[in-house]
Known about the structure:
single chain, globular
Amino acid sequence: MVFLASSSASRALLLKQAGITYEQIAFDYDESKICAIKTAPVSYSQAVVEQKVLQFKAHFGSQLGQFLERGAIIFADSSVICKGQILCKAKDESHARAMLELQSGAKASVYSAMCVLAKDFTLSALSVASYDFAPYPEREIDKYIASGEYIGKAGAMMIEGFSGRYILSQHGDISTAMGLNVPLLKAFLAPLA
Length: 193
């Protein structure tokens, strides 16, 4: 059993598709503390995951041991890096549009960090998936934004949907772009089985 300390529907879907038994713990992280993190773009997601672990531990306190007796806790975060900029979740439609226009016809990389907290060990990893995109047609950006599917997605990128239609080349596992490197996670969880 694993506990997914995230409200991400994409991460939950990845665990389900991988046949990993999980329980999702929806926890509202204090985004103001997370957004204030100052670090290099390539290490941003790892720093966010570390902050999420600290907030989770502070919130659950004595209950943490109960979770760890039953299984491992998975923390994760993703960010999109494009043209040297860190692209997090869109604040609104205009922010989503600006991020999508930045990625249009460009190279963007998804950095997905995870931490697996178990009773006897803690493992951390950072995975990268990079994409070269064809230009996004303006009308398609309009439709995508109107659909609301961009909400909650790092960089407003949806590799399993809108963004995936414009991939020219890719390097890295698609699960990384969806928020959780599943092959790596399975290797982490193997000792617990």
